[in-house]
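Q: What residues go here?
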């Protein structure tokens, strides 16, 4: 018989500060995603959030290989007719350098509520902001709400059931003799 071990209560979350200077975008994102999911721990379970907190600094200095600066395009839609918006990776790195890492990591996490919970433990900064990196507070883990006690209905005394009267034995007919 297997015994249930509550691994959620045994999770020890660590804080990792990663410097993105001269690291390739995709390889860096894989490392971050593994830390957020908790795949580096022996207690990893795919249906629990066992990951750590990750702070990425110097996101503007990440290395992008090949022609991705001009060729890679991110799309989004405003849900209005003609509302398709697009931006290249090069333009995104100029305007919002942290979003490239955030989008890459988000695509590697599960696309469920659990993945959204993992993604909340990621902080990305464009420069070397040591003071902000130290001041990152862990996201409070929500405890499940206590269940309300169910209202107990008072038991009503039921009348005693009379035993069924025995049926008189059937008379044997003369034909069966």
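A:
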């Amino acid at each position: 018989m297997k015994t249930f071990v509550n691994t959620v209560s045994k999770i020890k979350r660590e804080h990792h500060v990663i410097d993105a200077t001269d690291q390739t975008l995709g390889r860096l994102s894989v490392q971050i995603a593994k830390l957020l999911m908790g795949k580096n721990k022996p207690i990893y379970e795919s249906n629990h959030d066992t990951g750590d907190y990750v702070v990425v600094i110097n996101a503007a200095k990440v290395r992008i290989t090949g022609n991705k600066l001009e060729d890679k395009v991110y799309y989004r839609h405003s849900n209005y007719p003609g509302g398709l918006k697009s931006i290249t990776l090069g333009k995104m790195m100029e305007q919002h350098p942290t979003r490239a890492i955030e989008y890459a990591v988000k695509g590697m996490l599960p696309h469920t509520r659990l993945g959204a919970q993992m993604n909340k433990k990621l902080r990305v900064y464009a420069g070397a902001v040591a003071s902000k990196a130290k001041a990152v507070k862990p996201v409070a883990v929500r405890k499940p709400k206590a269940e309300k006690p169910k209202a107990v209905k008072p038991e009503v005394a039921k009348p005693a059931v009379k035993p069924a009267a025995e049926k008189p034995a059937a008379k044997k007919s003369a034909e069966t003799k």
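A: Context that may help when evaluating the design: The beta strands are 15-19, 53-57, 73-77, 84-88, 122-124. Helices lie at 25-37, 68-71, 89-95, 97-108, 113-119, 130-134.
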